[in-house]
Design a protein that fits this description.
The structure holds 2 protein chains of 2 kinds. Chain A is about 35% helix and about 10% strand. Chain A is of the alpha/beta class. In chain A, strand 4, helix 3 and strand 5 form a beta-alpha-beta unit. The longest helix of chain A is centred in the N-terminal third of the chain and has 17 residues. Chain B is an alpha/beta fold. Chain B has a single domain, classed as Rossmann fold (3-Layer(aba) Sandwich). Helices cover about 40% and strands about 20% of the residues of chain B. Chain B contains 4 helices and 6 strands. In chain B, the strands form 2 sheets. In chain B, strands 4-3-5-6 form a 4-stranded parallel β-sheet, with helices on both faces. In chain B, strands 1-2 form a two-stranded antiparallel ribbon. In chain B, strand 1 and strand 2 form a beta hairpin. In chain B, helix 1 packs across helix 4. The longest helix of chain B has 18 residues. Chain B is globular, with a radius of gyration of 15 Å. The termini of chain B are close together. Classes of the chains: A alpha/beta, B alpha/beta.
Chain lengths: ~325, ~150
C-alpha cells in the first residue's frame, strides 16, 4: 500500500512543478503515525510530510469551500466517500470547481484508532495494510475488526475525477447501513427514548460534528447565537442536546451523503450517523431512493415535491 | 400551565396559515362552534413558514402538543408552499418518533377557509388525545418552567 502514497506524491510534485496547481490538499503525518491531519501543502519540499495510509479517514472536501476561493488552482485527493461530498458541494455552489484539480484515490477502509485502543494498542506509528488485513505493532487484524463504522457499510464508488490513482478493487460492504436504524425502529417508543437519552446525554456540545460535516457550510450557524439558549450545553436540562441533534440532522437531511464524519469525530462516541441515516431511510422509503452527491444537478428531496406525496399522518402507517 | 378544577389542562400550539386555516378558525368562531381554549393559535403566512425549530421551541416553552394547519394540497395561496411543508413535517415527525417522543403530540391537518366545522372537530380531537398523553416530559426544558 506504500505504492499508492508514492504515486500520489509523484503526481503532486508533477502538478506543482508544472505550475498547473499552486497548492495540494492532502493528509499530513502527525507526531505519531495515527495522528494524521488534513493539510495544505504549498511547495514540493513540504510534501515530505505528506502521507496516505489507513489512518487517513478525514474527508477533505469541506476545506475546499475556503480553499477554492483563493488564488490559483488546488490539487485535492478524494477517497470515494469524499467525492460524494465534493459533488454535493458543487451542486450547492459552495466550491469553485475551476480552481480545483481532483484526483481520486482508492480506499480499502480506514482504521478507527478507538477500536485499536479497545484492543489495547495505542501510540501507533505505522501500520502495514493489505486488502483484507492491517498489521499494527506486530499484531494482525482483520479489516472488519478495526475499520471505522462508516467503512463497514461503505458502498460508495469513485465519482467524476480529473484523474484517478487506484491499484486495487474496492472491498464489498460488510454490513447493511440501515441495519441499526431498523433495529431502533422496531423498538417501542419508551425503549427508543431511553436509548437516545442515554446516548445524547453524553454530548458535550463541542460542535465537532457540525464543524466537520461537509453539508454544514452556512457562514452563520443558528447554533452560534448566544441569545438562543442553545449555543452551549446547560447542566440543568437535556432539552438543548435533543434540539441540537434533531436540528443538526434536519438541516442536512436530503443533502447528507452519509460520509459518516459526524460519528468519526465525536469524542463521546455518540452514533450520530444513526440520526442522519434515519432521514436517509425515510427519504428512500417515502420519496424514492436518493443518494446525495451522486450527481451535481438533480433536485434534492426536500427542495422538491410531488402532488401525491404521503401525508405526515400516514408516515407511521396511519395509526397516528 | 393553567390549572382548572385542580386538573392540568394541556397546552396546544396551532400554527395556522393565514389564507386557509386561520380563516377556518375564524369561521369556527363566528359559527359558534366550540373548540378547547387550550389551543393557542399562531398565525403564519404559509404552512411552509413553519421552521422545525418553531415546533421544538414550542415544546421547550411548555406546549404539550403542536399542530400545523395549512391549505389543502393543491390550494396553497403560494401554489406550492404546503407541498414542501408536507415533506418537511413528514420527516421531522418521523424523527421525533424515532427519538421516542409520543407521535400523538404532533399533527398536520389541512383546513380550508370554508371548513370551520372541520377546524373545531380537529382541535377537539387533538386536544383530547394530547390530554390523554398527559404532560410533555420528553421534550420539556426545566429552565422554562416556573
Amino acid at each position: 500500500m506504500q505504492r499508492i502514497e508514492t504515486a500520489m506524491i509523484e503526481k503532486a510534485k508533477a502538478l506543482l512543478s508544472s505550475g498547473e496547481v499552486t497548492r495540494v490538499l492532502g493528509w499530513k503525518k502527525g507526531e505519531l503515525g495515527y495522528d494524521v491531519e488534513p493539510c495544505v501543502f504549498k511547495s514540493e519540499e513540504s510534501l515530505k510530510d505528506f502521507c496516505y495510509n489507513v489512518f487517513c479517514g478525514a474527508n477533505l472536501s469541506k476545506y475546499l469551500v475556503e480553499e477554492s476561493k483563493k488564488e490559483g488552482k488546488i490539487l485535492v485527493f478524494l477517497k470515494p466517500c469524499d467525492s460524494y461530498s465534493f459533488n454535493q458541494l458543487i451542486k450547492e455552489h459552495r466550491i469553485n470547481k475551476e480552481n480545483v484539480y481532483t484526483v481520486g484515490v482508492e480506499c480499502q477502509g480506514k482504521v478507527d484508532p478507538y477500536k485499536l485502543k479497545e484492543n489495547g494498542i495505542e501510540m501507533v506509528d505505522s501500520a502495514v495494510e493489505t486488502v483484507d488485513t492491517v498489521t499494527v505493532k506486530g499484531k494482525e487484524f482483520k479489516k472488519e475488526e478495526i475499520i471505522l463504522g462508516k467503512c463497514l457499510t461503505c458502498t460508495k464508488k469513485p465519482l467524476s475525477y480529473d484523474d484517478i490513482i487506484s491499484f486495487n478493487e474496492k472491498r464489498e460492504p460488510v454490513l447493511d447501513r440501515f441495519e441499526t436504524v431498523k433495529k431502533l425502529e422496531a423498538m417501542t417508543a419508551d425503549e427508543r427514548y431511553a436509548f437516545w437519552k442515554d446516548q445524547l446525554s453524553n454530548c458535550i456540545r463541542c460542535n465537532a460534528c457540525r464543524n466537520v460535516c461537509p453539508a454544514c457550510t452556512c457562514t452563520k450557524c443558528v447554533f452560534d447565537n448566544d441569545n438562543s439558549g442553545i449555543a452551549s450545553k446547560a447542566n440543568s436540562d437535556s432539552f438543548e442536546e435533543k434540539l441540537f441533534h434533531i436540528i443538526r440532522a434536519f438541516h442536512v437531511a436530503g443533502r447528507c451523503t452519509d460520509c459518516g464524519e459526524c460519528s468519526r469525530v465525536c469524542p463521546q462516541h455518540i452514533p450520530l450517523h444513526l440520526l442522519n441515516r434515519k432521514f436517509i431511510s425515510d427519504i428512500d422509503r417515502l420519496y424514492g431512493e436518493y443518494q446525495a452527491g451522486e450527481d451535481t444537478d438533480s433536485k434534492g428531496p426536500l427542495t422538491n415535491y410531488t402532488t401525491g406525496d404521503v401525508d405526515p399522518s400516514d408516515v407511521f402507517g396511519g395509526n397516528n | 400551565m393553567q390549572e382548572m378544577n385542580n386538573e392540568k389542562r394541556p397546552l396546544i400550539v396551532a400554527f395556522c396559515c393565514n389564507w386557509c386555516s386561520y380563516a377556518g378558525a375564524d369561521l369556527a368562531g363566528s359559527s359558534r362552534l366550540s373548540y378547547p381554549a387550550d389551543v393557542k393559535i399562531i398565525r403564519v403566512p404559509c404552512s411552509c413558514r413553519v421552521n422545525p425549530m418553531f415546533i421544538l421551541k414550542a415544546f421547550q416553552r411548555g406546549a404539550d402538543g403542536v399542530i400545523i394547519c395549512g391549505c389543502h394540497p393543491g390550494d396553497c395561496h403560494y401554489t406550492t408552499g404546503n407541498y414542501y411543508a408536507r415533506r418537511r413535517m413528514s420527516l421531522l415527525f418521523s424523527m421525533l418518533d424515532y427519538l421516542g417522543i409520543e407521535r400523538e403530540r404532533t399533527r398536520v391537518e389541512w383546513v380550508s377557509a370554508a371548513e370551520g366545522a372541520k377546524f373545531s372537530a380537529v382541535m377537539n380531537d387533538f386536544a383530547s388525545k394530547v390530554a390523554a398523553l398527559g404532560e410533555n416530559k420528553r421534550l420539556e426544558d426545566l429552565r422554562c418552567k416556573e
